[in-house]
Amino acid sequence: MRKFGLIGFPLGHSFSEKYFKEKFARESIVDCSYRNFEIAAVSELEDLSKDPDLEGLNVTIPYKEEVIPFLHQQDPVVEQTGACNCIQIRKGQLTGFNTDVIGFEESVSSKLQVEDKSALILGTGGSSKAVAWVLKKLGIAYLYVSRTKTSTPNQLGYEDLDKKILQSHRLIINCTPLGMFPNTDQYPPIEYRYLGPEHYLFDLIYNPEKTVFLTRGEAAGARTKNGSDMLAIQAEASWKIWNRPSGR
Predict the structure, then answer these.
(1) What pTM does this model have?
(2) Domain that holds residue 224
(3) 108 and 90 housed in the same domain
(4) 25-65 per-position pLDDT tens digit
(5) Residue 32 sits in the same domain as residue 127
(6) CA distance 149 to 154
């Protein structure tokens, strides 16, 4: 039996296991299984990857960056972003990929307008690096926003988000877990009263389907989109990677 799975902590919010089980059933794939591996420390990956039947893993919060030292090879996008959400395993060799960039680019583009020239990326974790990579590719300028200042360049604090900044950055992407199940009452602390129909709010969260972040965006007349399409697109990209020759 070929094995695949997801590593992260916690994983109560994840739809990946359900997604792949339904995919296997729908496509009559009978020789594969997919399960969640809720590991308390990324170091547990070392023992996990020794399973000779394990051929691939998805990686989610909080390990998209922490997993890098455990890789034997890295796709160029992983090298450039410093984040990995997909691992191909062949004969004990772990090769890292980033399918978040594929999922985000295809998903966000469906509602982009030519006027969306500047973006705010809420959060500085692994997912935010994939988002920044895509925005750079699309020619969209961006600033990171975080609760605490880090070494990340082009970064603001939430307290810096005044009316001028919010109104001049039409695209706002939530890359934080704020609002994710079960903490659905949480949301990024921005001044939603400064948003309007010209804005586009994209939330990487897909559970719940509509976060407070998106609900408040909708109330302001903004375009909104959650992370469900992104999840499906990146999952299918992972599946292609797991089924192709090693390291390609």
Answers:
(1) 0.90
(2) 102-229
(3) no
(4) 999 999 999 999 999 999 999 999 999 999 999 999 899 99
(5) no
(6) 11
